[in-house]
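HOLO CASE FILE
Compound: NAP
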Amino acid sequence: MTSRRVSLQPLRGKTIGFLGAGTMGCALIAGLRAAGLPGRQLMAADPDAAARRRAMRLGARVTAEVCRVACAADVLVLAVKPPQMAAVLACARECVGRHTVVISIAAGITLRWLQARLPDVPVIRVMPNLPATVRCGFSAIAAGRLARAAHRRVAEALLGASGAVCRLPERHFNAITAVSGSGPAYLYYLVDAWQQAARDLGLPPAVAEAAIARTLQGSLALWRCGGLPPAALIRQVASKGGTTEAALQQFARGRVAAHLAAGIRAAARRSKALAWR
Ligand SMILES: NC(=O)c1ccc[n+]([C@@H]2O[C@H](COP(=O)([O-])OP(=O)(O)OC[C@H]3O[C@@H](n4cnc5c(N)ncnc54)[C@H](OP(=O)(O)O)[C@@H]3O)[C@@H](O)[C@H]2O)c1
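Model generated. Tokens follow.
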């Protein structure tokens, strides 16, 4: 398994079309633009005028017509919600061929399902996450049976513009959806509770926000750069009979770690149950 940043070279001269310019479609467009891809290489189709305006402000050419984008694209990113996928593919399938690379970022839509509708087309499945919006995303990618190394490089370059990319066998996609696809929401859930506690303790909101943000940022940096596992880092903060220990004992009584793990397992089960095979 690899995790790395990649260059835009495999996308040079290619037209990249997005079907769906919502949250994730625009996040990926923004990443490509910030990485230096010219706007003339980007197209997006979306029925929603506000979504089109956002994509246009990012420099993409926009339209409401799926077929216009599907016909022009060398690389076609399917960035609609899963229930919209069948209708989008019914329009797009007439235009795409073996020279198009199709990249789906939809949760739960399997390579098998996509390949059955696009039998001659190289297809790649991706699970990105929301921090792609600020080029700090994490994307897992799995290639379909027709995707060759050159097609994988195209997908890695496209997702690499918005963060780290990791090749992962498709059998792990329910797990990675639960871990990193849904992951940002777990953190925001914790941050919300943390902010509430800070308010209850009477801290000015701006101080609380800066303190929590910096604590998170610094703690993550130390975990990733310091070479110590979380349990060892916890021991560096928590002294016997001290303040941190008081909090950790309360978490243990509430079985917070077990509940978090159970929640992440529930997300993986949901991903499996929702899968379109
Ligand atoms: N958001 C995340 O954190 C996240 C993370 C990983 C993966 N994903 C996946 O990314 C995909 C997109 O999610 P999102 O959060 O970006 O959703 P979103 O914000 O709702 O964006 C989807 C966009 O597609 C548009 N659309 C609907 N029908 C269309 C059609 N026929 N042709 C072209 N565009 C069409 C929607 O317009 P209307 O609003 O008018 O329907 C909307 O603007 C989903 O499959 C999701 O599973 C999302």
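CASE NOTES: The first helix runs from residue 23 to 34. The chain has twelve helices and nine strands.
CLOSED: yes
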